[in-house]
Amino acid sequence: MYLFITIITSVVAGLFNAISGIFQRKGIGSPKAEELYSKDQIVKASKNKLWQIGAIAESLAAVLELIALYYGSLLVVEPLLMTNLVFLLAIVHFRLKKPVSSREWIGIIAICIGISLFLITANPHGGQARYGLSWLPTILIVGVLIAFGATITRKLKNTKQRGALGSFTGGLSLGLTAALTRLTMVQFHAGIMVTITHWPLYALIVSAIISVFAVQVGYGSGPLTITQPVLEITSPVISVLLGLFMFGDSINTSPLAILIELASFLLAAIGVVLLGSSKRTIKLETSPALAPTL
User: Fold this and answer.
1) Distance, CA of 91 to CA of 97 (rounded, Å)
2) Which one, of 76, 97, 92, lies nearest residue 13 by Cα?
3) Burial of 260 (0-12, 13-18, 19+ CB in 10 A)
C-alpha cells in the first residue's frame, strides 16, 4: 500500500511540476546574464501572474513530493518525478493540437521503460538514515558547488553554456532539498516534537528557499531545450546518490543488475533529452497559446 501511495503521489507531483515549469518559464522571461540571481529579477518575476500560477503548482508538487518521501525512499520517488516531461509534452500537445512526432514517442517510451526497468531491477529499499555531523561535508560540498555555479553562470555570455550551468546548479539544489525532505520525513515518523527540535527541518527550509531561487534562474538562464533536460537529469542523479550514501538505501548490486540499472537510467536520460529538445518544447517558449498573458 505504501509503495502505491509513493508511486501515485510522485507521478502526480510530476504533473504539477510540468504545469509549474510552463507558467514559471513564461513568467521569468529571458533575463540578461547580469540580472540572474539578483533580488530585483526575483521580485519582478514574483509580481507576474503567470509566475504566481506556476508557484502555486510548484507548491502543490512540493506537498505531494513530501507525502511521497514520507512513505518511500529517494531512489523510488526522484526517478518517478522525471515523468513530468511526459506530462509537459501532453500539455503542449493538447494546447497546440499537433500530433506527437516519432522522436517524441521514442522519448516518452524511453523515459517510461528506463524508469520502470531501473525500479524493477534495483528493487530499492530503505536503510538507516545518517544524522549529525555526517551531513556537514555533503551540505558544504553541494553548497559550494551551488555558489560556484551561480557565480560562473552570471559571467557566461553564451546562452547555451549559461543555460546548462544554471540548470545544473538548480538541479543540485533540488537534489539536496529532496534529500533533506526525506530526512525530515524520517524524523517525522518519530513525532512532531522530534522534528521541530532537530536541525533537518530548518536546513530543509533554507535549502527549499535556495532551490526556488536557483530553479527560477535555471529557467531563465538559457533556452528551454538546454535547461529542461539538464535540470531533469541532475536532480534525480544527485538524489539517488544521496539516497545510497546518506540514507544507506540498498539496491541490487549483482554485476548484471548494476549494468541494467546504469543502462536503464541512461535510457531515461536519453528520453529526457529527446523530449526536452523537441520542436514542441521550443514552442513552449514562443507560443502564447500555452500560457496566455493574464
Assistant:
1) 10
2) 76
3) middle
The helices-and-strands tally (H runs, E runs) of the chain is: 13, 0
Is there a domain that residue 6 lies in?
yes
Residue 287 predicted with pLDDT over 50: yes
Q: Using CA atoms, how far apart are residues 258 and 190, in angstroms rounded to an integer?
A: 34
224-246 and 84-96 helices, crossing angle to 10°: 160
Q: What is the pLDDT of residues 92-129, one digit of tens each?
A: 777 767 777 888 889 989 999 999 999 999 988 767 77
Q: Which three cell numbers stand for residue 91?
A: 500539455
Q: Average pLDDT of 57-82? A: 92
Mean pLDDT of 140-168: 87
In a domain, 292, yes or no: no
d(CA 24, CA 58): 9
Whether residue 291 is contained in a domain is answered as no
Domain around 10: 2-286
**What's the whole-model pTM score?**
0.84
Domains identified in the chain, total number = 1
Q: Where on the phi/psi map is residue 120: left (φ > 0), alpha (ψ -120 to 50), or beta?
A: alpha
150-165 burial code (b ≥16 CB/10 A, e <16)? beebbebeebeebbbb
| Interior angle at CA 39, CA 225 and CA 161, nearest 5 | 30
Whether 294 is in a domain gets the answer: no
For 66-78, give the DSSP string: HHHHHHS-HHHHH
Of 170, 151, 128, 134, the closest CA to residue 28 belongs to: 170
pLDDT of the residue at 245: 87
Tell me: pLDDT of 273 over 70.
yes
Q: Rounded CA gap, 146 and 208, in Å?
A: 13
202 band by pLDDT with thresholds 50, 70 and 90 = very high
Query: What pLDDT score does 41 carry?
Result: 67
